[in-house]
UniProtKB/TrEMBL annotation:
This is FAD/FMN-containing dehydrogenase. Keywords: FAD, Flavoprotein. PANTHER family: BLL6224 PROTEIN, D-2-HYDROXYGLUTARATE DEHYDROGENASE, MITOCHONDRIAL. Residues 37-218 form the FAD-binding PCMH-type domain. Belongs to the FAD-binding oxidoreductase/transferase type 4 family. The keyword Oxidoreductase does not apply. Pfam families: FAD-oxidase_C, FAD_binding_4.
Length: 479
């Protein structure tokens, strides 16, 4: 089928703003966030309503055209990128970005799936509430993408991942059926929890068009501290102490090695000089909506106890909003710092918290014996047992070649180690196209069989994001 034959039926369905055919504009949608792979498509479709999404899906199914849903295209595993066949169309939700309703009493917000995360946070804040999902890409990623990847981020230790925030959903299935379940109920045990099927499904089961998200009281008090860790500080024990003593007010526990901090520092024009101890640094935050609590006092007491244990060499409690912002900026700029250098080979691993130190020790020796000259940038959401154990691409080498080499050798050793400790090769970034082979390598066959049955039930013809995660039963390969 020629390109124009592909696109014609969609042109009839959407207004002119709803079909992008210009190759230059298309190119901005077909390259993945890490610039590792460029796919191909004949058009980007931008529906404005759920009905249009359903019509697109029906047409695509009729013509045997594949669909790749896309939000902000900030994901790391190539799940939002079409394959090279040119037979998949991108459906971008960017025109569906409305805040539908805020219910301050039920503490919920209903939105279109194309709403930008930051805009949803702001709308909630304007109503005195918090959408407790926060990540470095929040100014570009969209709620449908957050649901598609089950995004985690910087406050999971207190509020959980996207999965934990989802109360209701609206989605279009692979045959155009609309699932309309935009309820804000906290309790609803009426059979299978269908909305949860879409969480982490990376566009392979349907297109999410709307969501109801759980909100929390907006913190009015915060205490933010930068802890410099002693050599070989037992991070999990430090976390346990801080968690226990924080009266459930701990919202963030972010670990950073000094190399990661330096990378961020180099990427900031006027960087704060916070530094790290020999064991790295941790950003800790307590937050509360109560005006009756003195969080600084609580944090000071907790930090004093942490210093007494010998885990922490030194701690700085933010004395002003700008000091707090500077601490956060340093943490959030690490991915940008890596990118500016020449990128990194990313390992988004998680292990049970009790094994985090063991992972760091074992992985460190694996890297040293693989190539003692390799540089690492290790940081992450240790409060959730999640480390970004990234290998920096040397400045003077070809990034793609280096990435390929590391991913086919050292990465597997690191993932083996995580797996042996009961961990995983993808904590929060998903599987997409890039990590499909890892799913086959590390997942229990029964689990993969169950996933393939779910895929088959939702999308037997493999219309929805074929090539990501798993294929249906009877498809080309085991996963
Ligand atoms: P996209 O990249 O557009 O899509 C992601 C997947 O979801 C794709 O498979 C796509 O097909 C599918 N999808 C998109 N929209 C829909 C829809 N409406 N219906 C069904 N499927 C859909 N991630 C974290 O978890 N934690 C972090 O801390 C974090 N920090 C980041 C920091 C930076 C600087 C960057 C660049 C990325 C970061 N990410 C992080 C990764 C990324 O931002 C998240 O995965 C995010 O949830 C992706 O949202 P998106 O809208 O960009 O989705
Ligand atoms: C973060 O925690 C993101 O900042 C990005 O998940 C991780 O770039 C990375 O490896
Ligand atoms: Zn992360």
């Amino acid at each position: 089928m020629s390109q124009s034959v592909h696109v014609r039926p969609f042109r009839d369905l959407l207004d002119s703003g709803g079909v992008v055919e210009d190759p230059e504009r298309i190119a901005t949608y077909t390259m993945d966030q890490r610039q590792l792979f460029t796919g191909s498509t004949f058009a980007v479709l931008k529906p404005a309503t759920t009905q249009q999404v359903a019509d697109i899906v029906r047409l695509a199914a009729h013509y045997g055209i594949g669909i790749v849903p896309q939000g902000g295209n900030t994901s790391y595993c190539g799940g939002a990128t079409p394959d090279a066949s040119g037979r998949q169309v991108i459906v971008s939700l960017e025109r569906m970005d409305r805040i539908r309703e805020i219910d301050p009493v039920s503490m919920s917000i209903s939105v279109d799936a194309g709403a930008i995360l930051k805009n949803v946070q702001d709308a909630a804040a304007a109503a005195g509430l918090l959408l407790p999902l926060s990540l470095g890409a929040e100014a570009s990623c969209r709620i449908g993408g957050n649901i598609g990847t089950n995004a985690g981020g910087l406050s999971v230790v207190r509020y959980g991942m996207t999965r934990d925030l989802l109360l209701g959903i609206e989605a279009v299935l692979a045959d155009g059926t609309v699932v309309s379940d935009m309820r804000k109920l906290r309790k609803n045990n009426t059979g299978y929890d269908v909305k949860q099927c879409f969480v982490g499904s990376e566009g392979t089961l349907g297109i999410v068009t709307g969501a109801v998200l759980r909100l929390a009281p907006l913190p009015t008090r915060r205490a933010t501290a930068w802890l410099k860790l002693a050599k070989d500080a037992p991070i999990a024990e430090l976390l346990t102490l801080i968690h226990r003593e924080s009266a459930y007010l701990l919202t963030t526990f972010e670990f950073m090695t000094s190399r990661s901090i330096t990378l961020a520092t180099e990427a900031i024009t006027d960087p704060p000089s916070l530094g790290a101890g020999p064991g790295g640094a941790v950003l800790v935050e307590f937050a509360s909506s109560s005006r009756h609590l003195d969080l600084d006092e609580l944090m000071e007491a907790v930090l004093a106890e942490a210093i007494e244990t010998g885990c922490v060499d030194d701690a700085l409690l933010a004395q002003s909003g700008s000091q707090r912002t500077a601490m956060w900026r340093l943490r959030e700029t690490i991915p940008e710092g890596e990118k500016r250098r020449n990128g990194s080979v990313k390992h988004d691993i998680s292990v049970p918290l009790s094994s985090i130190q063991r992972f760091l020790d074992l992985a460190g020796s694996q890297v040293r014996s693989y190539d003692a000259d390799l540089e690492l940038s290790v940081y992450g959401h240790v409060g959730d047992g999640n480390l970004h154990y990234n290998v920096l691409v040397p400045r003077d080498v070809d990034r793609l070649e280096f990435t390929k080499r590391i991913e086919s050798s050292l990465s597997l050793q690191l993932y083996d180690t995580a797996a042996a400790l009961g961990g995983t090769f993808s904590a929060e970034h998903g599987v997409g196209r890039f990590k499909k082979h890892l799913l086959a390598r590390y997942s229990d066959p029964g689990r993969i069989a169950a996933m393939r049955r779910i895929k088959t039930a939702f999308d037997p013809a493999d219309i929805m994001n074929a090539g990501a995660i798993v294929c249906p039963m009877g498809g080309k390969s085991a996963s």
